[in-house]
Amino acid sequence: MKRLFTILTIAVLFASCQQQQPQAKYVFYFIGDGMGLAQVSLAEVWLADQNGDIGSVPLSFSEFPVLGTATTHSASNIITCSSAAGTALATGEKTKNGMLGMTPDTLPIQALTYKIKEAGFKVGVTSTVTIDHATPAAFYASVPSRSDYYDISLQLAETNFDFFGGGGFIQPEGKEKDKPHVIPIIEEAGYTFAYGMEEFEELKDAEKMVLLQNKDKKYLEAVPFAIDRDEEDMTHADIIRAAIEFLDNEEGFFLMSEGGRIDWSCHANDALTTILETIDMDLAVQIAVAFAEKHPNETLIVVTADHETGGLSLGWEKRYTMHFDQLEEQTASKDKLLADGKKKEVEKIEEMNRKARVGWTTSSHTGIPVPVYAMGTRSQLFGGRIDNTDIPKKILEAMGVPF
Length: 403
Ligand SMILES: [Zn+2]
Prior knowledge:
This protein is 38% helix and 16% strand.
């Protein structure tokens, strides 16, 4: 009885403390595609190893005061794909693998971004892969199949959201290249396109913007992996910096930003590329944290994942050691080497992963829950064991926007 009373007292104190926290005016929603706890831990352990230490150097978000876990199953599978997970994270409803922004019986579901925009906040959606890819698309589009890329990009034009940023578009003229190009259609809807950060600086006074990477840099593809990057390539941190500059206003803003290529390097079972991508995402989160420090009590940052990819583990087969020095010689991602036809070098990376004792169990996704890190006003909402569909509901609650 006494214990029950204590629990009740704590619950009441907690609830009243929650009520005193102001609503979130500036919200950052980071989604590391495929970034499970193992991906975060691997980056942290690797960083310590770089200093010659056995241990862990924390990434910014793993030091956030609130930690939860989110279950990720879809309406059809225990192991979700990115479009079903994106739909859950954007709309609060589960759908079947392969579907995007629609219920399993193909009824469109409105993403939280529309509700937030209607409530008077500015809205941004960005990714390091293409802007029509499953995760960013779940925040503005509803299509029966995630590969309806052309329809997805047409729906972007209709959103009236303020800022989009990412690599480009996968099928700007449709699957058969027989449709009108989407870029003039999106421009017609009032968007200014900026290619690369230099152009962003020139055009940032535009009313609505789509920021893509430099035009002569494979602009219809994803932003290059950190490991493959040239100096002038756009980074995740660049995208966040631009998004903040563009969206900052007195009424507040919401920014969803995907670190999309962690998933790709994990599909390839490529440890070093995964480590560097995860650190790259952390650099982007650090920009948001610096913003939060300037706007305490009114900023909320949530960092999570849509699912884990690769069945990554720290350790492989029987031994209690890892040997990161084995990864030192790698200078390009497996994906890039494959694209360049360098099969021998790809095999070498696989060998290096084994020698480093980084374990992989699949070239696909897994069904393990993902971590949810939160800081700032009303961040306590995200602690404990939740489901991925709870996250958008809690974000709206934190912002005082009805679900
Ligand atoms: Zn994936």
